[in-house]
Design a protein that fits this description.
The complex is a heterodimer of chains A (319) and B (258). By secondary structure, chain A is an all-alpha fold. Chain A folds into 2 domains: 183 residues, no CATH class; 67 residues, no CATH class. Helices cover 72% and strands 3% of the residues of chain A. In chain A, a hairpin with a 2-residue loop joins β2 and β3. Chain A is globular. Chain B has 258 residues and is of the alpha/beta class. Chain B is built from 10 helices and 10 strands. In chain B, α5 crosses α6. Chain B is globular. The termini of chain B are far apart. Classes of the chains: A mainly alpha (319), B alpha/beta (258). At the A-B interface, α7, α8 and α9 of A face α2, α3, α4 and α5 of B.
């Protein structure tokens, strides 16, 4: 019960926060929005990497597919943002399934390499399929979302939109990982032979994790397209995939609050270190290496969990 | 007597290695069958054939009058064959209860939508599933350690947890791979009691592999002896003890020097 009150307090704070921030600076609000986008991305990657244990390196590709899908639908189909959001989620979910079906037969490094290749292929398609994507010039002029006839123009409106999306993502992923599905995913991650010997068929669960993770990355992509009102291949590079992966690992794999913490840290750190110019990325790299050595389970790893993976309050399920 | 499981002329080869050759074997209802044999005799290979990790090169495996040669491990669990592993395989970072929950058949069938829209009925169902798991844990005597991480249990209790996990799949045939490995004599004695009790309580047939001859003689209704992938003897404890082939397999005999 105390934890529920805590959660309400955090959400309430997040709702009130921009009123305070806006007095200070639009820039800070922008950072908060970027944190939101990366929170969705790291939460969704956590399903694949943390819960299903599939070391995927191409998450930016799903993010990009979502952004381009939404952009194209809004520009050419003149569809509303909400429709584009749903379409982007569905399309990327499908791509997750497509990528998943061959790669779930691979393990470890091999899986990493194939997903990395997938990420590069998708980026190259964005660059070279000029007829549709306008190549490196990108797609400008994506309309802003509107709600009941009111178009979003202020940053604060976008802030509330991403807040709602993050909460929705968190809610859905949280429910799924704390269910029989999550429990099965963890079993498969730990020991596939064991999973089979207790009656779990591994492949459908791995596929589910891939398409679920991809689906929410698509949501983040669609939001990005509408927020910046411009998409170009530059936003979906290999480096972005690595960055998202670093958030998941830094925050703690198989921990949802950890993913959000990772997103906050890795979005804030380069901003705070901005005055150091070129050295900031080196420092960040160093920080991650030190982290891996001294705290490999992340800042908020599995040890902190208070819930049984079966969704029963407290481990063991006894009140 | 009915035959629950029957192997007819089952062989498996890995390249040129004949791991098992023409094994005939049957498990009858209501019995505890032990499989013994020196190291490398093919006991664990036989288990892997029964649970579907390997497929036989030739021969047929029949379970409840159905040929199951090609069934995958998870499919065999669904028809009632469960196992434990030689070196306790548990989810070490998860609690005792969670380790048993993963094996519960209804925990495996939850759909995505059911998980997202967690209805009151679903919650009740989950509580009931958890309760069933607690009951099974009670039967093996681990119900006081529900929240303990499986990895921090003493070795003997890890074996019991593995058994609970197998039982919760509602198996009818339980395969125990060296259940007493690494246990001290007192623990072994308790284990024999436990296996007998579980076999009665859950009405299941048990096949076990074991090295400890004392324990085998004590617990099994029938014994099958393997050596170099071939069945060399079958019978009651007393018959096996007298069998010259068994004695030579274990102690070395003239025919070993051929």
């Amino acid at each position: 019960m105390r934890s529920r009150a805590g959660r309400f307090a955090i959400v309430g704070l997040l709702i009130l926060l921009p009123l305070l921030l806006q007095q200070i600076d639009d820039y800070i609000l922008h950072i908060a929005i970027i944190i939101g986008i990366y929170a969705i991305l790291s939460l969704s990657l956590n399903v694949i990497v943390g819960y299903a244990g599939q070391f995927a390196l191409g998450h930016a590709a799903f993010y990009g597919i979502g952004a381009y899908t939404a952009a194209l639908i809004m520009l050419h189909g003149s569809a509303s943002f909400w429709l584009a959001l749903a379409a982007a989620a569905a399309v990327t979910g499908l791509f997750g399934l497509l990528l998943g079906s061959p790669v779930i037969r691979l393990r470890g490094d091999y899986l990493g390499i194939v997903t990395l290749g997938f990420g590069e292929i998708v980026r190259l398609i964005f660059v070279n399929w000029v007829d549709v994507t306008r190549g490196p010039m990108g797609l400008p002029g994506i309309p802003a979302p509107s709600l009941f006839g009111h178009a979003f123009t202020e940053k604060i409106e976008f802030y509330y939109l991403i807040l709602a999306l993050v909460l929705l993502t968190y809610f859905i992923i949280n429910r799924i990982v704390h269910s029989g599905i999550g429990l099965n995913l963890l079993t498969i991650r730990e020991d596939e032979t064991l999973a089979q010997s207790v009656g779990i068929r591994p492949n459908p669960y791995k596929l589910l994790a891939f398409s679920l993770g991809a689906c929410f990355a698509g949501v983040a992509g669609a939001y990005w397209a509408a927020y910046i009102s411009y998409v170009s291949p530059d936003s979906f590079r290999y480096l972005d995939s690595v960055n998202i992966l670093a958030m998941v690992i830094l925050g703690g794999t198989a921990s949802l609050p950890g993913s959000i913490l990772g997103a906050i840290l890795l979005v804030l750190a380069p901003e705070i270190l901005r005055y150091m110019n070129d050295y900031r990325m080196m420092l960040l790299g160093l920080a991650i290496i030190l982290m891996m050595i001294f705290k490999p389970s992340g800042f908020w790893g599995e040890k902190h969990r208070k819930y049984n993976f079966y969704g029963l309050a407290q481990k063991g399920g006894r009140k | 007597m009915d035959e629950l499981l029957k192997l007819e002329k089952v062989s498996i080869r890995f390249g040129g290695l004949h791991a098992l050759t023409d094994i005939d074997l049957s498990v009858r209802t209501g019995e505890i069958l032990a499989i013994i044999g020196p190291n490398g005799a093919g006991k664990t290979t036989l288990f892997n054939l029964l649970t579907g990790i390997y497929r036989p090169t030739s021969g047929t495996i029949t379970y409840k009058n159905r040929v199951i040669n090609k069934l995958k491990p998870y499919e065999r669990v669904k028809i009632g064959i469960a196992r434990t592993f030689q070196n306790a395989r548990l989810l070490k970072n998860m609690t005792v209860l969670e380790n048993v929950l993963v094996a519960h058949p209804q925990c495996n069938t939850e759909s995505v939508l059911e998980a997202i829209f967690l209805t009151g009925r679903r919650r009740e169902r989950r509580a009931a599933i958890a309760q069933e798991c607690v009951e099974v844990l009670k039967a093996v005597g681990l119900d006081h350690k529900l929240d303990v991480l499986a990895g921090s249990l003493p070795y003997g209790e890890q074996r019991l947890l593995e058994m609970a996990r197998a039982l919760v799949t509602r198996c009818e045939l339980l395969l125990l791979d060296e259940p007493a490995a690494g246990m001290n004599p007192a623990e072994k004695k308790q284990l024999v009691e436990k296996i007998r009790q579980l076999s009665r309580e859950f009405n299941i047939e048990i096949v076990l592999i074991e090295h400890d001859i004392g324990l085998i003689m004590n617990i099994s209704d029938r014994i099958v002896v393997l050596d170099h992938g071939v069945k060399i003897a079958e019978g009651s404890a007393a018959e096996i003890q007298q069998n010259p082939k068994v004695i030579s397999a274990y102690l070395g005999g003239e025919d070993d020097w051929d």
